[in-house]
Each structure stands twice: as C-alpha cells, then as structure tokens.
Give the backbone structure.
Amino acid sequence: TRKVLRGRHVRLGPVLIFVPDLNKPAAVRLRALLWSLWNDRVLPAPCPRDGAVSQVVDAATADPAFYRAIGYPLYANRVIRIDMLDRVINAVYENAKEGKFQAEHKMAEWLGSSIDDLYAVLEAMGHKKIAEAVVPEAPVEKTEEAATAEAVKPDVKPALATFRLK
C-alpha cells in the first residue's frame, strides 16, 4: 500500500502522513475557511502568512484541532507547517543514537525560529533535554597570534543541547 500512496503523492514520514500539495497557501486558506464554517467559528480564520514555515501563536487561545486541520500542528507556542515538522522529525530519528540526539542549528533554521523556540518545540513533542548547550569560552587576552587565528577560523556555531527521545 505504501507504493500506491506514494503514487498518489502522499508523504509517509516516520510519524506524520500528509499530502505536500495541500501545503500551498490557497489550499491552507480553503481548509481554514471550511473548518471554521463547519465548527461555527468566527471568520476570517486565523491563517499563518502565505508560505510561512512556522508562526508564533498564543498557545492559551489557539485551537490545536484547527491548526492540525490546516496542516500546521501546534507545539509549544508555535504552529509549524507539516512538511517542515516532518523534516525535523526525520533529522531527530536519523541522528539519534542510544535514545539520545543533539539539536542542530539547521533544525531551527528549518522552523524559522530561535534556538530557544526549537528547544520548546522539541520538549512539546515529548523529548526531554538532558544536557545544556556547551558554549566555547572566549579568550581572555588576545595576542596578535590569537587575533590572526580567529580571523582565519571559519564561523563555528556552538554545540546545542542534547535530548532524550520520548
């Protein structure tokens, strides 16, 4: 059946199943309108910006069922387009070793979020932070050699926190 679903352009991720064509802005707006009408909600429906990968919402007032229906599941205080969420989940499972994985900068970039928001999303998914990020110490005194070496070094991003799979 997987072959049949792939032939119909259904994306099967490790956790999520979705149709990428339904992530297009017009399809998202139409589903938002239809869901709002069916559930007697106020119009216009609160849709994310066209093409937005993720967006911050008020988690206390946001309806998770609405955002799931339009393809933007709610995690922490952020709604995330389902294809980008699937990409992050794939990266988590691919990089997990012995039930642990390290968050990566590219995950935050995919979500269009800060590192702290990425941590909140990962924790809302049920993963537990087990080790804080290690930030390299800055040299106290800069010598001529240190300044030259620093100018030659590529821009290295510090390591991020480690999480345990749920």
